[in-house]
Design goal:
This protein is of the alpha+beta class. The chain is built from eleven helices and 16 strands.
């Protein structure tokens, strides 16, 4: 790893804050407390909280059909055979709901899943890339494509939370960046979190495995620089943040929706979000559509924006039932353990490769270290 920043919040105190290594190896710049990181999919819990704020205002229900807010999605269908643009499809068993989006049971996919003819169509159309420059353009394209499966019948990590970001815009009447700033970042004092940063000198360099061993600089995904304002505001992976900012978000979660007297979310709403919402209370292992996420998510279900621990013996990870978490593509991660009054934020910038030798078991190793240190 090029450099890391590890933060542990325990029983109301920040008991560990450790910066190690370099944020930029070539320039020999060490990791700083205010280093800015691409948090990729750690954007998802933030955007999920945003939608649930609108739920608390009575503007959306999680059992609402998605077509209530995206009318062109009323007649989505499910893939049966064929390749783009000559798909053969069948009707959905039921309409996609808001809960299906929040829990990744929507039937949507990612272009980089590399599993089916549907995700091949995502790649051909550039969904999630610079060729689809706005959230509105994305949902318009998705209206023309079949789902991988009928909503609610399986779990598949997907572009769903980008659609959640679009719903935040439609329901609130604000751009996603403006909504997040007004309702989450400003109230929590997350001054360095956003879809781009003006502090180029504090943005960590991103790395990946080099073909000859070691690591090399990784180009930013899909044309993003993170120092220029983007047109596509990705609710699934577009934010940059600091360890300190994300810790503020985690303190709010650990405080049942409130931190330092600032209420972001209701206690019962957060309780709803951190229950397992997979059909028939299945685990991700049991309901995974592709099987690629099974081994790493044994003993875990999925809530509304978070993975949720159900059985630590099944997962074979130290921790507590009810712990919830998520991670980012560049090896960032966080988790919240209400039973232990514990929150952990880990920041780095390393995009692992496809081979096992380049993929590190950071989440399990950190849990072993940190839970082993508790009194």
């Amino acid at each position: 790893l090029p450099g890391t920043l590890t933060v542990v919040q325990y029983r109301g105190e920040t008991v560990h804050w450790s910066a190690q290594g370099m944020m930029d190896r070539k320039a020999a710049r060490p990791v700083r407390d205010d280093t800015i990181y691409r948090i990729y999919s750690m954007t998802k819990p933030i955007v999920s909280v945003a939608l649930m704020q609108l739920f608390e205002r009575g503007l959306v229900q999680i059992d609402d059909p998605v077509y209530k807010f995206i009318p062109s999605w009323e007649h989505l269908r499910v893939y049966e055979t064929g390749s783009y643009p000559n798909f053969q499809t069948v009707p959905c068993d039921r309409h996609m709901t808001v809960r299906d989006l929040l829990s990744h049971q929507s039937g949507l996919t990612y272009g980089h899943t590399m599993h089916t003819n549907v995700d091949a169509a995502y790649r051909e159309l550039g969904i999630g890339g610079p060729d689809v420059p706005t959230l509105q353009a994305m949902v318009d394209h998705l209206a023309t494509l079949p789902l991988e499966f009928s909503p609610g019948t399986a779990w598949l990590y997907s572009i769903s939370t980008d659609v959640v970001g679009h719903l935040v815009e439609v329901i609130s009447g604000q751009r996603l960046d403006a909504y997040l700033e007004q309702h989450i970042f400003e109230p929590l004092g997350m001054t360095d979190t956003g879809f781009w940063t003006q502090h180029r000198d504090r943005l960590a360099t991103n790395y990946r495995p080099a073909s000859g061993g070691g690591i090399e600089v990784a180009p930013d995904w899909v044309g993003r620089t993170y120092v220029d304002e983007p047109t596509f505001l990705s609710g699934g992976g577009g934010l940059v943040s600091t360890a300190g900012d994300y810790l503020r978000f985690c303190k709010m979660l650990l405080g049942e929706g409130t931190v330092d007297g600032v209420r972001i979310l209701g206690r019962k709403t957060l309780e709803l979000m951190t229950r397992n919402h997979l059909t028939d209370d299945q685990t991700i292992y049991e309901s995974s559509f592709t099987g690629r996420y099974q081994s790493s998510f044994a003993g875990n279900g999925f809530g509304l924006g978070f993975s949720v621990a159900l059985d630590t013996a099944d997962s074979q990870i130290a921790g507590s039932a009810g712990e919830y978490n998520w991670s980012g593509a560049a090896s960032t991660l966080f988790w919240i353990d209400p039973a232990e009054d514990l929150a952990v934020v880990f920041m780095t910038q390393y995009l692992p490769g496809s081979t096992p030798a380049t993929r590190y078991n950071l989440s399990r190793e950190l849990r072993a270290i940190i839970y082993g240190a508790l009194n």
